[in-house]
Amino acid sequence: MDNAAIIWTEGKTDWQHLKRAFQVLDIGHNLAFEESYEDWGEDRLLKQCKALSRVKQAVPTIFIFDRDNDAIIQNIEDSKLGYKHWGNNVYSFAIPIPSHRNDNMAICIESYYTDGELQTKDEEGRRLFLSTEFNPKSGRHLKESNLSIGNKGKLGSLGKGARAKIIDSEIYDELSRNVALSKAEFAQNVVSGKGSFGKFRFESFLAIFNIINSIIELVSEKIDLAFYDPKAFFDSLDNLKPAQQFMEIVRAAIRACKLTTMIFIAAILRHYEQKIIDESSTDLKKVRPIKQILAQSFGHPSLTTLQNLARYCYHLVDDSAPSVVYTLRGIMGATPTLGAIGNLIDELEHIFPPPREQVRIVNKSQLNKPILEYLIKEFSKYEGRMAELLEIDSPNVPRSVNLAEWKEALLMLLDCFSPLKSLSFRVRRIERIRNDSDEFDILITTYQNDRVSVEEETRTYEDIDDNQMETYELLVSPEEGKTALDLFPFIIIRNNKLHYYNRTKARGYEYNAVFTSKGYLEPIKRKFSQVALRTNIAADLQALFWTQVTPTVSELGIRANIPAHGPVIGRKQQLADIMTEIIEIPNQNGIIYGPGGVGKTALLIELSRNLFEEPCSDPILFKNIVWVSAKPNYYDPTLDRVEVQQPQFQSLDNILTAILEFHEIEDAITYKTDEKKFLVLELLRDEKTLLILDNFESVAKAGQEEILKFFGVTAKQTLKDKPNYFKVLVTSRKLIPSGFHQYRLKGLDKGESKKLMAQLFVSYARSGRQQLTEEQQNKLYEATDGIPLIIKHCYGQIYEYNRKLDEVIKGLSKAGSKIVDFSFAEVFDLIKQDELQLQLILLLELCGRRLLSRQIADILTVDEAEITDRMAQLVNYQCVNIISIGTEEKYGINDEVKFLTRRLAIENASLATKIKQKIANLSIDKRMDYTQQELDAVLFFEDYISQGHYLLGENFIKEQLKDRPLSLLLNLHYAKYLKEIKRRTHEAIEILEKILKASGSDQQVLRLLMAYYIALEIPNYEQAHSYARELEYVSEQNNEIKTEIAQFYLAWSTALKNRKIEIDPIKEMMRQQKYKDLASKAIAHLKAINSDTHEWHHLLAQSYYNVWDYDLAMAHVDKAIALLPKGSHLYFPYQRLQGEILKKQDKYSHIRRA
Fold first, then answer.
1. What is the number of structural domains in the chain?
2. Structural domain range at position 327
3. Which pLDDT score is estimated for 837?
């Protein structure tokens, strides 16, 4: 008898135990063991495994490892299969955990015996021991105190998570005799069956042999991928009633038709994919219907839909098609004699009679009919009616119990599809990605000639065709130009069975096989039609949005004219919110609002698709889903161009006409408006309807009011006895007063944005360009705030026009940016009419933080009531958002319009400069946000301090800060007190640092930090410099701040100048240059002020003194002294500086004379 497999083991005793168990259990297959009397060890065994996998092995060669090293296990075992196939008939696995063990033990072959068996003693009283039998600290046996272990290190760590192991040496009794039995001797005793060793049981070893048997059977088993086990299916019918048996056989026949048709469709679409995408003029009539069916009718395709699509695919086949395509077309075009299949169809027609006007042919068994045009079409008539069999009350259903004939019919149908068996299929699965390189391992399973073979290949990322972890392919002869046609997402292979796509569900695609009614779910979030051709179904689908979309009807009778659209990334939560907050609540209408390009239309298309394809309640929520769009233009984000379109509606009359045309009422446009209203209300009363009005902001105000009044009031009053019969959803860039439930849509989150970026890159993956790095993707997300249209625009600019990411991002805020013009057109119109609106936007943008209306009024010197009125409009246009602080409201720029606000600041530079100046000149108390209670607390605190009650004052303000730890006003006054009164400068700095961000980097806080850091006992000029730089940005219009910055640079310069001279001449030269540079900065700031006070001249004199320009220094100090008021205390310090300058002049004049 030939060996069914060769077994290699890790230890020299492992094979002995396995062989003994194999003999005792009398396993069916003949196994050969590599009988080595030396330990291989896991590393060496793994190397041998890899070496043999490079050459084809005649029989399965199986390497068995201990389960005691997680790193090894991950490398030699697939957790799903229970083993790993290395290719060339080489396999490996780790011995499974026996049922009487748990994962607290390092599993080796001896673990398969019970503890009692392991403790069996030989003739000399020796046995194996477990590490858990000993105290890890003393090494003494826990029960037999006369025993101890010689090397406690063998016990290892026995703490939480530690694994027990077998000890076979260095166990000593009180006489120092070794009482441990070696594993080798233990194995010999087991094999020979000596004494008690002969009573051992081996049933636990079956877990190992079951894995070995599954590998052997995999290699030897014949595989019928399509029609794998009709016998088992027929056996499952035995206990059913005749009607149920008949129903299940017909359902299996329909599934067989769907599988075969789907394979045919998938092969055609893949082979002619580019032709379908390109829509060349010669093939336009052939390919456009294919794309339309995929885009609109593939959420849950019926056999009727598949037959219709297959007919279009059939006519695409030309001389370029590979032989496998011709084989499939041969199946579709075959005209077999119907035989028992005809009798089955006769039975179906008897149960479900056709309409009277339809001619009925009986005794179809003698007919020869084409499979695609007749057989599949006939079965498609009954796909949705099988469940009715169980409800029809008639003794003639079915007419006779002829199970054998029905089985024959099904088998004959399968025989019609039998050419599928001649095809070869392949599954490629990414098995392991290597962290240390760009390589990964692919497990390739090939189904050919009723056999399955598995091998492994190593590839690099450049070889990846798409982002699938698994591909399912129909093999093509290499001589025919291609090696394989990718069948996903139409077909997958699971458990050695072909599964066809059945429907899209919330969590992914559902697939069915012929003889199982339960579907397999393939988790995936992309829309099926987008995966089908691995590109957008049509490049112009967004442009097609404005065309009149012909209504289609689902299997459940739902009628809809949903526009075609690309896949929606994410938005699961938003869809759920709209369902629960609007759709499922009677009489609740909704307005979905947000900036242009955020995805409002796409979201409602996805919602409509969900309602159309998979109703989420019984009865159906809506019988009709009517879309009407007021979209006036279309922006192509890739090519960066705006195309003007004709909107579908601008008035109530337009919408009424669209609804009537949706219901196929002829010449609807010729009716008067009142007649249209009457007809529409009649239609709404008849069937549940969802009306979606897209881009509502494009309609004039009078038109909006008329539309909202009719659908929001009149229609609801008419249908007051049917509150769940009609619902309106509106999308708008502007929040329009409507009485509808408001739902604001924001950009995608970071994860969803990156998924969109990955999807966008697919089109450029083969261009040689690299995907944006993680850092670049993060930067793009932050810049776009997750707005899908703007992300698409950026990818188009980067990959179509080869522009750099930074350049693209900067371009968003520049004049002439079409994406900004398109997305915020309504805002541009608004600010053209009202300059105060522009000022408000600029103020919030330049300020960089939220403001109260009183603060805005103080800065712009405008009445607060006017501010509140204008802000309400900006909130409606999504430019500004509001948050409530106690009883007050604060306004801030909406992140999603930052491109607009930045651009406005650039385009209106002079106005922005004036507003900056107004912000800078506003006192800190007015700039700060505080409540009346905070102001009262500060007044009490200052009262304490002014009276010298420092301890009371400090305790009081500390208590106030416990209640309001983030109060800017309280923290600021407390910091000033700590520095100016208590001289606790470090503490003052800590408080100021804490409130800096919350204050929006307020100038006053920055000024104090700059001053306090140089007031420290050891001044920190570097840290103070960071705040000086921030102040330089905002000091353009504020001479007071410029003076303080100049004083800072002068103080730093003087501190460096007064340091001791460096011994190293180069370091000394660098020190001198540094303080000269700092003094020069002070001079620049002072000159920008152009003052004529004694303080100004004194600062300039000091600065020129530090740059060694003693003449100018003398001129300014003389002027400073001249400007001093009589008797000023500053006379002597100024005179002292004058004297020092004079000394330097004299010194250098002597040098020049010399």
1. 6
2. 230-421
3. 82
